[in-house]
Structures are given as structure tokens and as C-alpha cells.
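Dear colleague,

Thank you for sharing your sequence with our group. We've completed the structure prediction you requested, and as agreed, I am returning the results in plain text so they can be pasted directly into your records. Please verify that the sequence below matches your submission; if there's any discrepancy, let me know and we will rerun it promptly.
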Amino acid sequence: MADDQTQNRTEQDQVLRVNIVTPNGLVYSHRARMLVVKAIDGDLGIMANHEPIIAPLKISEVRVHRMDENHLDAIAVNGGFLEVSHNQASITADSAERARDIDLRRAQRAKQRAEGAIQTAKMKHDVDQVRRAEIALNRALNRISVSSHK
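Please find the predicted C-alpha cells below.
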């Protein structure tokens, strides 16, 4: 029996639990071998037994290499932050969408709207509006890119 407990503990020590939460609730929850995110300071690869860390994230794709060898989940996140502790990786973001849930046509329309808003804001020399439209464009481009991983 002690060997079974040791075996279970060893398996648990090799698993990273990944949760992604938005204001609307839990978007993603799976066991993983590895998590890859784009932090403000650069890319991070997180595996089981990683040292505790908190990092702000860019608008980017989050990749989760699930426990089954060939399964990769792609999730579009709009910034947020990552916290890792005790084989638990939690991402809190304003919004997040799994690749399979992204409406590509809607993302392409958002891209077109953002590009139009950038041009209009530049003509008006409205720096704040240009910045907001560029963020909207980055979000749309991220969703379009992630949707290709369906």
C-alpha cells in the first residue's frame, strides 16, 4: 500500500494543473506536462515542480501540452497574469478563448474595425485612440492566429 501511495505521489509531482479564469468564470482547466506563455519580460515554459512565480502576460497565445503526448491546446488570452505555485498554474485574464471556440469571421471583422479606427485616429492625431485601436487590433490578430490551431 505504501508503494501505491508513493507511486501516486510521484505521478502527481509530474503533473501541472492549468486553470484559466476570466471575469465570466473558468474558461479552461486541464492537467498538463508543460505550459507555454508570453510574459511581458519574455516567453516562459512552465512544468511540474516549477518555482513559484507571478508574471504579467501579453496579449498572446497560451499553449498547454496536455498529459497525453500529442495533445496541445491553444488559448487566446488578452493579457492578464500567471501565478504558479505547488504544481498549480493559474492564469487570470480579462478574456480568453480556446481555439475551437473562436469565431474566425467575427475576429476578422474586429481586425477590419480596428484597422479603420487606427486610420481615423491617425487622421485626427488622437494618440490615445490610436493606442486603443492598436490594442484591439492585437487582440483580433491573436484570436485569428490561435483559431488556426483548431
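Summary note from our side: Residues 102-147 form one domain.

Kind regards,
the structure core
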